[in-house]
């Protein structure tokens, strides 16, 4: 009987060791899984932060490009307006100069002749049309 109790005690010890090993492996497995889960969550948080930073940087680049484009567009519009103003002023000054010449010739001619002078003039975009009819008496 004593032999049987020694065998059962030995088996009980082996069973306890196996049970302890199972519990230890289960605990290690849980610990490893928890550690991996925490690492994966940390990596996910870092990835989310990085993606949001990339989106912000992309938006900043887009806004900068839009601002640069609008500044260039505004500069082009300003230059075009200045050129058009210069052209209009040049045409106006040419027409005014032509009108002054016509007036001076008209005044001189009316003082020299006492005839009848009829005329009309029309200022167009880049030239002056002039029709003069002189009737001497």
From TrEMBL:
SMART domains, per database record: IQ
Coiled-coil residues: none
Pfam families: IQ (PF00612)
InterPro entries: IQ_motif_EF-hand-BS, IQCF
Protein name: IQ motif containing F6
Gene (UniProt): IQCF6
């Amino acid at each position: 009987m004593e032999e049987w109790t020694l065998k059962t005690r030995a088996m009980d010890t082996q069973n306890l060791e196996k049970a302890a090993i199972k519990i230890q492996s289960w605990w290690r497995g849980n610990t490893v899984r928890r550690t991996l889960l925490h690492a994966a969550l940390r990596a996910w948080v870092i990835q989310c932060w990085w993606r949001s930073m990339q989106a912000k940087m992309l938006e900043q680049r887009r806004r900068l490009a839009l601002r640069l484009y609008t500044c260039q567009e505004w500069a082009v519009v300003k230059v075009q307006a200045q050129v058009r103003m210069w052209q209009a002023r040049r045409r106006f000054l040419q027409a005014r100069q032509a009108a002054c010449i016509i007036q001076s010739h008209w005044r001189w001619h009316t003082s020299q002749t006492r005839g009848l002078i009829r005329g009309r003039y029309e200022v167009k975009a880049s030239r002056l049309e002039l029709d003069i009819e002189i009737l001497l008496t």
